[in-house]
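thread: overnight batch results

M.L. [08:02]
morning all. the overnight job finished for the chain we discussed friday. pasting input first so we're all looking at the same thing
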Amino acid sequence: MLKQLVRIGKAFPTRLFVGVSLLLWLLANGAPATQKCDCPCAKDNKQVSAAESPTGQVTIFWPRPDNFLVRTLHSKIEVQIDAATVGTVDFDAPLTISVTSGPHKLVVKGKTRYLENIAKRSEAQITVSAQNPLYFQITDNGLNVIASEVDAATAQVLLSGAMRNSWQAIPSGTGTIYFYWPRNGLNLGFLDKLNTDSRVFLDGKRIGAFTNGDYLVVKAPSGEHVLSVDMTLSSGPLLEQNVILGAGSTRYFHVEKRFDFRIIEDSPDEAAEFPKKELRQREVSLQ
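M.L. [08:03]
and the structure it wrote out:
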């Protein structure tokens, strides 16, 4: 009897017995993990997941500018959503894209080999929803590309191609213009009294004055306007900027001297870099 037990132990070594036992256990307990469920409940779950991620529409358009330099340097504008290129916008050729609902980052930048490395791009945080399509109007002054949000009714007027001499068609309301003249160089407050005021006009009517270190907040009716500032007392020309204001919209501009004085449009993020605590707000009178 002892000899038979010894022979069985030799025929089935301990390691082999343990290995076979482990394999049988894996087959018995691991099989359910590899099974696929083709039951109707799985399909229903997929449909629910898709329904939980609705999409909304974002339209970016670029009205044809009057500036010949802009038309020459920038022939197309590249549009990115969350760092992924989704298309390009050309003059009078808007881009409409479907984006999943929720917060996203919108970026527009000039697409040209001459200015691509030095031109500023416009970035904006947007919230997309299926019930509220978004519209952005592109303006370009040669170095800065700005995407400004406009309401749906104003966008439809501008998309119709009748931007000039048709501002009456834009729905009535009030828009806001922020006009900054940020300080240049050292902030020497005791020299402020030596600054010379420059007169500011809206549609040819004087609305106030400001100088280096000041800013204005202008409330104006929706429609097309011309914002201008007389820089002759600062050894500069009369500067003009065309502005399309939609009802409830806000536009940002600042005076800057590069080779000469210019009015530059800013995105909301760029305008936030002008600290209001260090700038003085001047009064505005619309008559």
